[in-house]
Amino acid sequence: MDRRVVLGPGDDCAVVKTAGNLQLLKSDCIVEGIHFLADADPMWVGWKAMCRSISDIASMGGLPLDALVTVAIRSDVEFEWLKELYRGLRKAASTYLVNLVGGETARSPGPLFLSVTLTGMAEKGKYVSRSGGRRGDWLFVTGKLGGSIDGKHLRFSPRVREARWLVGRFPIHAMMDLSDGLGSDLPRLAAASGVGFEVALKNLPLNKGLRSGKRSTGRRRLRTAFSRFRGPSNRALNSNGRKPSPGLQLTPIGRLVDSGRYEFEQKGFDHFRGST
Amino acid sequence: MDRRVVLGPGDDCAVVKTAGNLQLLKSDCIVEGIHFLADADPMWVGWKAMCRSISDIASMGGLPLDALVTVAIRSDVEFEWLKELYRGLRKAASTYLVNLVGGETARSPGPLFLSVTLTGMAEKGKYVSRSGGRRGDWLFVTGKLGGSIDGKHLRFSPRVREARWLVGRFPIHAMMDLSDGLGSDLPRLAAASGVGFEVALKNLPLNKGLRSGKRSTGRRRLRTAFSRFRGPSNRALNSNGRKPSPGLQLTPIGRLVDSGRYEFEQKGFDHFRGST
User: Fold this and answer.
1) Given A51, B168, B172, B199, which is the most exposed site by the fewest CB atoms within 10 A?
2) Do the Cβ atoms of B31 and A2 come within 8 Å?
3) Nearest chain B CA: its distance from A155 CA (Å)
4) ipTM of predicted complex
5) CB-CB: which of B72, B99, B100 is closest to A29?
6) Which of B31, B47, B9 has the alpha carbon at shortest distance from B220?
7) CB-neighbour burial class of residue B266 (10 A; exposed 0-12, middle 13-18, buried 19+)
8) A128, A227, A130: which is closest to A170 by C-alpha?
9) pTM to 2 decimals?
10) What does the alpha-carbon distance between residue A103 and residue A81 come to, in Å, rounded to a whole number?
């Protein structure tokens, strides 16, 4: 790694110095039979593939800029299907002001592979990694949890504007995209930050039809619908669950604590408030 | 596309303005059963995957900088195999001073899929696309053609230093990576430049065991061993086949001519010299 590299592998994106700002780099892929089924709507498959990387850029507090799309295609895939796939890719790109600047098409003797690479920009000193969390930080999620169960996992909306809003106004220490679900991803943030966590299950903002006791364990079911930012932050941004602009639902769900303690508790939020 | 995008899809790389220089972006993938066989040496599979993208950056006259690697893996792939794959990726990266800054691993229910994205840098106004060729330009290849037939297709060496050397010294109008072979790739350069070409088969610098009459047509056989630059250039760089530093074999093979004419001729080089 040369000195231009601010942050290498292991976070949502890599961070590289450019002459002006920091450059964010993210590559992600989705595979037929793993991340989507053969009968899924190709438009939403394309949307999802693009939005996964956009969401990772957002979760660093960055602005997505340019995308490269690489597809390996089964020979029996119909042209119409591919057209719809690219319509979804383009729709997501234009929604988030991303330039589709290139890519590659190859044949696949097996399932369809779709890889999206995205560059992004963050102001110097303003990117937010997973590793900045500190003991005592509040833990927040944006939006609601559990939406992936109804097939919404294809249609999620990356929180670019919301993340930029948060990062611009509050001293967010750590932030992360919830792609595998709280139970899988929160330990990653804690480990990267060298801390533990306590989360009150009662406080989780769940989608209708989900109870906090019902935690799904399958990898596919845990894949969540929205990029949700857990922003351990200062007191200015906490505990009353108020909606900050731009219409962002921000819910305090717990705290970062001493390392070694990974706890999802049945107790409610008052517990945490009491321990402040 | 916003105004930062200098060059979008269709060339070897995308080109994007940054505060200082131009940024090159390239994504490429290789798929088991298409680009390599299951029994191939995984070290060289990794090498090839990284070098394909490096070669594309080189073919624009750029310096490769940062790489993202995305792999989708069959569940029965052994850990040792993967370790060797990454050894090859890292070996290529360190050989060409590329930072491996991130990536993603996913499962594949089918063949192994390996995608490498690379950023690169080119000085403003110094990148060389496929589309700048002009009628009357000389056509050159670097190195020898036809090496892919002996399985050398995995072990090729991108010509980063050589391309930078050429671009820094001569007014190269167009340049391109020969990845599918002269017969497939030259028409692409010609089409992008709005010109035709005449190539003298007798002048092609072929590897031992190949005669110019023996042209392979299968896609896999046409994949070539080295990135070779066809640099239509000025008189300073032509016609005597001398080796410019850094030890680069540069062979004039023909000319760019009026659009519509795509000709591989049996005649030798004197024909072209005569027509100047």
Assistant:
1) B168
2) no
3) 20
4) 0.78
5) B72
6) B31
7) exposed
8) A128
9) 0.80
10) 18
